[in-house]
Amino acid sequence: MFKNFLKKLIRKCLRRFLPEILPECLPNALPNAMHYLPEGWHNGYNVYSHVFVDNKKLVHIGKGSFLNHNTGLYVGSGDAQITIGENVFIANDCVITTCSHEIGTSEKRAGKCTYNPVVIENGVWIGANSTILPGVTIRKGTIIAAGAVVTHDCLPDSIYAGVPAKKIRDLND
After folding, report:
1. Which of 27, 32, 47, 81 sits a CA distance of 20 to 30 A from 99?
2. Does domain 28-170 have CATH number 2.160.10.10?
């Protein structure tokens, strides 16, 4: 009971104060914001606890996909979507985001918000603690190693690792 009260209190505080902190990024997202996807099977995909989506209208998840604990899907207030194909496995503590910033002046380096879609094609496996940045497409059958930061598109049936993620090798079935 206390846990639900605390969640509601945090959500209320975030809705009240985030627009003042990040005014150009969040106002349009707030009506659909701050959602934890319920645990279990939904429309053919599986979710573990604490999978966070800031605007579920712009996130599409294919059948047979799995999102593990503490994964965050962030689209901000732009219209760029996150598309996750079928049979995708996303391990715990991953971040997938469509929003970033232009480089601003020395007074405020995080300039204007920018939005670019993220596409994760069928059969991809994303390792724990990985980050997928805006504008990235991960092609079918690719593996992203744990802790990788994906900044560019990934070729199909390959392994990528590192910061920034680089192709390590091809996968042969």
Report:
1. 47
2. yes
Integer Cα distance of 85 and 146 in angstroms:
20
Q: How far apart are CA 29 and CA 16, in angstroms?
A: 13
Using the structure block, give the residue that is written with the tokens 């920034």: 164
pLDDT tens, position by position, 137-163: 999 999 999 999 999 999 999 999 999
Which of 35, 50, 69, 101 is catalytic? The answer is 101
Q: Cα torsion for 139, 145, 149, 153, to the nearest 10°?
A: -20
Instruction: Report the C-alpha gap between 125 and 144 in whole angstroms.
Output: 6
Cα–Cα distance between 111 and 169 in angstroms, integer?
36
Phi and psi for 6 in degrees, rounded to 5? -65, -40
The number of residues in the chain equals 173
Residue 35 annotated to the active site: no
**Residues near 2 by beta carbon (within 8 Å), at least 6 away in sequence:** none
pTM for this entry: 0.77
